[in-house]
Design a protein that fits this description.
The chain is mainly alpha-helical. It has two domains: 31 residues; 79 residues, no CATH class. 40% of the residues lie in helices and 3% in strands. The chain is built from three helices and two strands. Helix 2 packs antiparallel against helix 3. The radius of gyration is 20 Å and the shape is elongated. The chain starts with a helix and ends in a 16-residue tail after the last strand.
Length: 124
């Protein structure tokens, strides 16, 4: 979320600079927001326990403890989206992205979603 917020601030500053340049008669182009945040859905249950009551660590770590766990289909979907963006220099349309994500399963893209910042980011 910190990266999303920083990107929003940078885009806003670049737009403001472009408007000022245009107002003063200088050529300027409006910046494009080429950030697409792809979220993966966490598992329904994070921890299983052994017969002794200890966490079972034989499987992959839960999201958040070792960042995000993606399936091969999800990684390929993100690579496909990146390849589409690289082919023409802009993000693919939302319908295409949602179709790719639906086929991969467990992915989401929502430009309006804002996760609460962790406490150590609160001062930035």
């Amino acid at each position: 979320q910190w990266l999303i917020n920083s990107n929003k601030a940078n885009i806003a500053a670049a737009k403001s600079a472009a408007v000022k340049a245009i107002a003063s008669g200088k050529p300027a182009t409006m910046p494009k927001d080429n950030l697409m945040v792809i979220w993966n859905f966490p598992a329904a249950k994070y921890t299983t326990f052994t017969a002794t009551g200890l966490p079972d660590t034989s499987g992959p770590a839960a999201n958040g403890t070792k960042h995000c766990n993606y399936t091969t289909k999800q990684l390929v979907a993100m690579a496909d989206i990146g390849a589409l963006a690289a082919a023409d220099g802009k993000l693919p349309n939302a319908g295409t992205v949602r179709s790719i994500m639906r086929k991969a399963g467990g992915l989401s893209f929502d430009r309006t979603f804002e996760a609460p910042l962790l406490k150590f980011y609160a001062t930035e």
